[in-house]
Design a protein that fits this description.
CATH superfamily of the largest domain: N-(1-d-carboxylethyl)-l-norvaline Dehydrogenase, domain 2
Helix content: 40-55%
Strand content: 5-15%
CATH topology of the largest domain: N-(1-d-carboxylethyl)-l-norvaline Dehydrogenase, domain 2
CATH class of the largest domain: Mainly Alpha
Radius of gyration: 17 Å
Order of helices and strands: EHEHHHHH
Shape: globular
Distance between the termini: 28 Å
Number of domains: 2
Largest sheet: 2 strands, parallel
Number of helices: 6
Length: about 140
């Protein structure tokens, strides 16, 4: 990853931010500074995007492969939202979305029932071999 979110809390001095930025830039990273708020920048944008893709599957509006194809070919994303979710881990995004929802009480962050069921079933994506897609077993 070439970009980092640097979190600035109320206790973080400007000199600390500048020192951190200089270090990160020295190792080839681009730094974006954000406030210490639930989800920061990437999570606040990424989470509703992913959850809405799940809601479309849950409502039988589209199949996972069609949603992912739309974003790969139509929007130029390297992976579709559900492929990305399977890679990151359905449980990871579920827990992050729940934490953001609990803090903000904004319904766009409330995980869909389908996601909760998948986590309960242990269908967590690539790491378990089953998520929105099925993955071959890894040989030891």
């Amino acid at each position: 990853m070439k970009i980092l979110e640097m979190i600035k809390t109320i206790a973080t001095s400007e000199s600390t931010v500048e020192t951190g930025k200089r270090f990160c830039e020295s190792i080839g990273k681009t730094v974006v500074v954000t406030k210490d708020l639930p989800g920061f920048i990437s999570g606040r944008i990424f989470t509703p995007f992913i959850l809405n893709a799940i809601r479309l599957v849950e409502a039988e509006v589209a199949k996972p492969e069609d949603i992912d194809t739309m974003f790969r070919l139509g929007a130029g994303h390297p992976m579709g939202p559900l492929e990305t979710l399977d890679l990151v881990g359905i449980d990871i995004v579920y827990n992050a979305a729940t934490a953001i929802y609990n803090e903000l009480r904004d319904p766009q962050y409330l995980p869909p029932q389908l996601m909760k069921q998948m986590v309960t079933m242990g269908w967590l994506g690539r790491k378990t071999g089953k998520g929105f897609y099925t993955y071959p077993e890894k040989k030891a």
